[in-house]
Amino acid sequence: MRDTFHTSRPVHTEGDPRTEWQARANRRIEFVPGNPGNRAAVFKRNEYVTAAYAEMYLRNPALYKWAGMAALTSAAVGRGMYMMHYLKRSRMGSMIGLFSREVRDVSYMLGIGNLAVFEDIYWQHLAYERAGIGELERIGRAGKLDQQVLRAWRQIEAGRRANDQELIWEGNRGLLYYEQKEVLQPKVYDGDAALWKALSGWIRSPIPGHAETIEVFAPRANIGLFEDRWQWIEQRMLPRWKQLSARHPERVERRLQVRMIGGPPFLLPSMLTGKLGQEIYLAIGLGSRSGGWLPTLARSS
User: Fold this and answer.
1) If pLDDT is split at 50, 70 and 90, which confidence band does 216 have?
2) Closest CA to 271 of 54, 76, 45, 71
3) 36 exposed, middle or buried (CB, 10 Å; 0-12, 13-18, 19+)?
4) DSSP H helices in the chain
5) Cβ(7)–Cβ(132) under 8 Å?
6) Which of 104, 157, 160, 254 has a CA positioned 20 to 30 A from the CA of residue 41?
């Protein structure tokens, strides 16, 4: 795995310096602002978002820690959207305690959150990678980048210059904190805390080998509440991601290379098992009707 960092000369754009980087980011996922698209387009966009994060991380795993974790999370969001689609079609939302309207709402919010985070942060990675910290500083001086986020990038840059992985991790943690609190919380979670509480026992950590829900971490926790969710991320997910990326980089690389290829975000049979898993595979065209792998039914089914 090769670490790279582009140190091209600063890229100066006419007008709003943030706009051009955002336009480049949108082209990467074939997204036209103001055109949300139908369900199939949202699923495909999720694949592109996941692939973009995976590419960014693999170009420089020593720097782009957030992007690697985001690729795994975006793939998990895609799995969630597929599952909600199946539950809506089959009218089986009651299996996880949801009414039909709530199934629809969850699917919609997952797509909204996936795009909102991408629009907020991917362009920053492009600007930093291709034009350096100076470009982000320039955008910050223009009032187009939150100072909290700029501080995180300064930490990443200082860590890069000093070859200090702990400082780089701290900067990436700052990006993660901001996206969870300032982007996802208002756009996704604040709308219906009770609904997210109902889902708290179903949503698992996206980190490979960490098959834990927030309720396993803290039985009374609500994934829709920022304080609860951040404790889970900071105390469980983030340490697992640091450990996995440090000790098993080849495993991470293989996983993310699959994400770069595209296709429905299902990597392992264990992600969809039992009768529900089999029905979902059939519903989305991944099962035996299309000649693909079909999970074995659990004996208790």
Assistant:
1) very high
2) 76
3) middle
4) 17-28, 39-59, 65-90, 100-131, 133-141, 147-162, 165-178, 193-199, 214-217, 226-232, 238-247, 249-261, 274-283
5) yes
6) 254
